[in-house]
Amino acid sequence: MKHTGFFLFAALLAVIIGWLGWQIFTASSAHNALYDMPASLSIGSPAADLKIVEFFEYDCRPCQDAQEALHEAIRKDGNTLLFPRALGLDSAESIHAALLSYAAGTQGKFPQVHAALMRNYRVINEEVLNDMATTTGIDLEKLGKDMQDPAILALLEENSSLHQHLHLPQIPVFLVGKNIVYSPPEGVTAKDFLDVFAAARAEQE
């Protein structure tokens, strides 16, 4: 009986070790996947020494409120690469906006359309699209076709999967560098973001 108990314990321990190993492997794979986005959907220099992943929704007010401080910090820093990963957790309208912005990337207009949506989010209708075409120069006919690309919907599904798999807090949330998870407080400033950037670089050294 003692031997049977020992073997059962050893088997259970092996299962636990295997499970922990798998969790570490999948977490590592998910972390590597964070930066696996088309270059047209990133903002900043590919040679930047600090990578930032942002999880957000277009119709999320706290996400919108953080944008001015975030992009002021990015401009002042000058050496970051931002990967905006849009989610569609709450509404079909949010998914529609995300499809639109990602589709704009095929025309090299993602940063402009992303900024326009975050700066002045409205329910997307013909008037909004015409305004966007005027301000960004985007081709609406091509945009409509590109929004139907299955690869764009797959990317949005990947965004949601990564957010859930990594057990991240509510949006907006930023993964800065290798280890920092940052949820900006209400009234966040550019200096707050710059301080986080500095802390992330210190950990990378």
Strand-helix topology:
Blueprint: H1 2-33, E1 43-44, E2 50-56, H2 61-77, E3 80-86, H3 92-104, H4 110-119, H5 126-136, H6 140-146, H7 150-165, E4 173-176, E5 180-182, H8 190-204
Parallel strand pairs: 2-3
Antiparallel strand pairs: 1-3, 2-4, 4-5
Question: Please, could you describe this protein's structure?
Answer:
The protein is α+β, with helices and mostly antiparallel strands. It has 8 helices and 5 strands, in the order H-E-E-H-E-H-H-H-H-H-E-E-H. The chain has helices at residues 2-33, 61-77, 92-104, 110-119, 126-136, 140-146, 150-165, 190-204; strands spanning 43-44, 50-56, 80-86, 173-176, 180-182. Residues 6-27 have low confidence and may be disordered.
Summarize the structure.
The chain has eight helices and five strands. It has 205 residues and is α+β, with helices and mostly antiparallel strands. The longest helix has 32 residues, at 2-33.
List its traits.
205 residues, 5 strands, 8 helices, alpha+beta
Which secondary-structure class do the elements indicate?
Answer: alpha+beta
Largest sheet: 5 strands, mixed
Helix content: 55-70%
Q: Based on DSSP secondary structure assignment, what is the total number of beta strands? A: 5
The geometry reads as globular
Order of helices and strands: HEEHEHHHHHEEH
Poorly predicted spans: 6-27
Mean pLDDT: 84
Distance between the termini: 54 Å
The Cα radius of gyration reads: 20 Å
Number of DSSP helical runs: 8
Record the strand order, biggest sheet. 1-3-2-4-5
Q: Which percent range describes the beta-strand content? A: 5-15%
